[in-house]
């Protein structure tokens, strides 16, 4: 029987990063991705990325809004349980909230959601944005453009020798400034998002970036729980 789990994310960046990260984590194991989008409160099929011999079926729900992640999990929980899903994972950014709001947001993540050992729920906060994870993966900058130097990274607002990207108030804007140093943009459309995701060094993310970004490490652990 094919194992099934669901991942509810807030937007396109989280959707595509999760798909690529799961593909890398799974290695030779086949995954079918069922991608659905939230529209007027309901989830509708967007695309099916099939695998000939899948051992895992992953529902990727793009909620198109950080506030919708928890709501959509709640609304779809019982149908997922009836369909035989083994785990539900959620991912949202903290931004536009700030560091002072993290404890409150974490305390409320599971409030009001079903508590059932047959279908556990893990919800994660990317601190403060998923782009903080990308910033910490320093190898990817040269893949975006060979002319991006570590001096450019520091000048853009991320002194990786002195701080962690999770300390930044708006990681997306910092990433954008670094790319702009060589005339590249980051408008967060499909093309620019895919460019960054393709540039990431996933071995480095798994082995080293996780140690610098605890929120990424927790998210990866949940994805591994779903896969294996």
Indicate the topology.
Blueprint: E1 3-9, H1 12-26, E2 30-39, E3 42-49, E4 54-62, H2 68-82, E5 88-93, H3 102-108, E6 121-126, H4 131-136, H5 140-144, H6 150-155, H7 171-180, H8 190-199, H9 202-212, H10 214-227
Parallel strand pairs: 1-4, 1-5, 2-4, 5-6
Antiparallel strand pairs: 2-3
Structure report:
The chain has helices spanning 12-26, 68-82, 102-108, 131-136, 140-144, 150-155, 171-180, 190-199, 202-212, 214-227; strands spanning 3-9, 30-39, 42-49, 54-62, 88-93, 121-126. It has a 6-stranded mixed β-sheet, with helices on both faces. Helix 1 packs parallel to helix 8 and helix 1 packs across helix 10. Strand 5, helix 3 (102-108) and strand 6 form a beta-alpha-beta unit. Helix content is 43%, strand content 20%. The chain folds into 2 domains: 3-127 and 213-227, Rossmann fold (3-Layer(aba) Sandwich); 131-202, no CATH class. The chain is α/β, with parallel strands linked by helices and 228 residues long. The protein contains 10 helices and 6 strands; from the N terminus they run E-H-E-E-E-H-E-H-E-H-H-H-H-H-H-H.
- Bin the strand percentage: 15-25%
Overall mean pLDDT: 96
Q: Quick one: biggest sheet?
A: 6 strands, mixed
Number of helices: 10
Distance between the termini: 14 Å
| Number of DSSP strand runs | 6
Task: Return the string of H and E elements.
Answer: EHEEEHEHEHHHHHHH
CATH class of the largest domain: Alpha Beta
Spatial arrangement of strands, main beta sheet: 3-2-4-1-5-6
The CATH architecture of the largest domain comes to 3-Layer(aba) Sandwich
Question: In terms of structural class, how would the helical and strand content be classed?
Answer: alpha/beta
The fold-level CATH name of the largest domain is Rossmann fold
Count of folded domains: 2
Q: Would you identify the regions where 5 or more consecutive residues have pLDDT less than 50?
A: none
What does the radius of gyration come to? 17 Å
- Approximately how much helix is present in the residues? 40-55%
Q: What is the overall silhouette? A: globular
